[in-house]
């Protein structure tokens, strides 16, 4: 398994329109593959499929794949129409055997399409198997429409049949925003209710929906993104089951960790991995489940949009036996403050408390140039070590678009 930074930049992305001066935008403009080029914050969790799953998907794909006509029957025009229909149908099915990994995406913002062609196409990502949404700002949801090109649909006459609704996890507040902003996507989708914590509960609820809804419910007028919408509370940490990621024998678990992204406005962070384990199995009045490989597996904490970590979220994070990788919001440099984002001083304060093994800043503005900022972060970490602080912290650095980190399961 590995995580891939699909984007690591502020909402405007980098370069910022109109910026030509003494900031990271200059290098981002002049150097096509610069680490200062940053799309909206987004992360891909890529997990290898077992061979049995690849074989099943390939067989299903071949069975559904339409055949071009032989020309033996009907008029030439009828045959051409049938062939065009078959070709369009084949395109919407995609090539199921291209990717050998399950793809779980965190956030799908306004630069997602650009990020796909810059970072994901070389990984042969042809589908998104599950989606996690942190909050309802444009840099987290305005690429949802483009997800339809990573879904399988069958064309049936003037309508489309959705082959797979993407399991999507979001807060109730974000759900309300989707209903207002992308009503046509919500209309195509299925509202599933509260996200269950276990695989068995997830499958029970999913099967109940499949049984209750008629087959005709899969028929849609527009080939638009279609989701299975599961809500996750935004007032306390909670475990929830993510299909494909948490399936299998690896024992990968997923927890939501709500944090403030501006006073009173909540955004979801996430803690996941087979290395997740807790000092105390009871926290915030709930029983906590360890991952399947607590000693050698990787524990990842992902907090991409935060201005303040509430007490219950901080208690949850401090209850972890270890954090191998902390991905954290880092908008501006030292001495700066922002009402809705962590800046460098905030990051160091959290690092001193949690002492994660490796730290990656994300969501940077153009005042944080990649190479010079990383040099400064390395120097500061040496000073922290000399003072007896941040013991066990091996590195603090900026992430960049395309950065890929192996994850032990």
From TrEMBL:
- The record lists the membrane-crossing segments as none
Metallo-beta-lactamase domain mapped to chain residues: 103-362
SUPFAM superfamilies (alphabetical): Metallo-hydrolase/oxidoreductase
Q: Name one Pfam family in it.
A: Lactamase_B_2
Span of the signal peptide: none
- Annotated region (Disordered), positions in chain: 62-86
Q: What is this protein called?
A: Beta lactamase-like protein, putative
Which organism encodes this protein?
Bodo saltans
